[in-house]
Automatic annotation (TrEMBL):
The lineage of its organism: Eukaryota, Metazoa, Chordata, Craniata, Vertebrata. Pfam families: HHH, HhH-GPD. Its EC number is 4.2.99.18. Belongs to the Nth/MutY family. InterPro entries: DNA_glycosylase, Endonuclease-III-like_CS2, Endonuclease3_FeS-loop_motif, Endouclease-III_FeS-bd_BS, HhH-GPD_domain, HhH_base_excis_C, HhH_motif, NTH1. This is DNA-(apurinic or apyrimidinic site) lyase.
Amino acid sequence: PRKSRRRKSVAIAYEAGQGDGAGARWEPPRWREQLQRIRQMRSGRDAPVDEMGVHRCYDTSAPPEVMRYQVLLALMLSSQTKDQVTSAAMLRLRRRGLTVDSVLQMDEESLGQIIYPVGFWRNKVKYIKQTTAILKQKYGGDIPSTVEELVQLPGVGPKMAHLAMHIAWDSVAGIAVDTHVHRISNRLQWVKKETKSPEQTRVALEEWLPRDLWKEINWLLVGFGQQTCLPVNPRCSQCLNQDICPAAKRL
């Protein structure tokens, strides 16, 4: 049969488990030890992501389709935005009754006033309105249940799609890689060679990281990146991995 060019591009972007083939599988030295130490540092569960992350932003008593919609909206708001700001915006939206229909009935100016000051809020107003209309027309008010369909929605990228699968559908389709996961994976050299984008990091991690860790790794590394492995001036002296991290600033 003829090979489909489109199918090939989809496999590169979205399909997981590409590193499951035969042959010796590369993995970083001492990664299990590094991971266990990060778990120890994250045992307090007191980072912003723990208290105000997307998994805390939706109404758990809402009907399942409303809950899933709220998860997706929280993810859309969270891009380039601190968890505290996303959480506050979601609370304001929920006070207005956050459903597909309520957002469709809301004019763009009102929606903008509610979600401000999330990052790029003007663009997000447009994306939210467009995506919500698609969900109403194509999915009966629910959200898609595949990564491939989710990333077709305006304003939804791969990280959001994988987190939506994790949180809304309790399904692990891949690793959700944001700037924290991307940065820390490169610092720990959990990628075979340096990656330039979160999506490149996702593909690199999925080639070797055991699948049963895929859901946990985002939560672990995001909180670790918020508290210890900061983008600028990382707190290496407070990190349990200081002696086995390739990027550590040692005293």
